Known about the structure:
This protein is an all-alpha fold.
Amino acid sequence: MGQTRLQAVRKQLGYSADSVIRLLRGRAETLGLSVMSPTSLKTKLSRWENGHEQVSLPHYRRLFRDIYGRTNAELGFPDEPETEEATELRTRLKVARSIDAETVKLFRRQVDHARHVDRRFGAASLLD
């Protein structure tokens, strides 16, 4: 059996299996998610990476996306139903991509103007 996408991404990033386990557990702790013990996770990681099992639980797929910075497709995971937050983020990203150089110049002028007013009159004047 060939290399899975999950394994290929780990190797591309230069991560050892042990470092991935630490990253998964650390990210899970940050998000308040419960995960397997390091020993169990090491076994699962091997099974997932060698294609013996799919990463079936959504929170594990999220952890992998977070630590690897890759999409479900790039990691070989099935598509998941899109949440409201994901839809909003996609919309914001589309808008951000459509901003041209003139809009950026205008925004910079506005920020520079606000800085000038702040330096001249102080922050308190902006609150009045």
